[in-house]
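Sequence in, structure out. Go.
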Amino acid sequence: PTEIVFVSSEEPWVEAKYVLDNDPETYWHTMYSVTVAQYPHWIDLDTREVKNITGVTYLPRQGGGDNGDFKDYEIFVSMDGKNWGEPVAKGSFERNKKRKVIRFDAPVKGRYVRLRGLNSQNGQDYGGAAEIEVLAE
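Output:
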């Protein structure tokens, strides 16, 4: 199973682990109680083996307005989780609560995936997600 190896920021009670629990009601939210973490926000996922990665899905937080919903994003793939190179995909999500599916132009060989949000739908510095899934062949 995929696991989280790094997250740029998280609140203790809305941790990044919740993006992998298959429960759309739980979510990851970046830090806001002590200080508000600034964009960009990102999460690094380890698929546990080298795969042909074909894309990523992103489900915004369900409920709670659009705090934390990524607008512009970049996705990176890495073999070692340290060297990321150029984004394999980038774009802008629609402003809604639907599951977003990002398919790469061609499969990318790698083990690690980074989803980086560059800004939010509502212009605030909050980031997060309800669910994230790595798609692979």
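Check: Strands lie at 3-7, 28-29, 41-59, 72-78, 89-92, 100-117, 128-129, 131-136. The mean pLDDT is 97.
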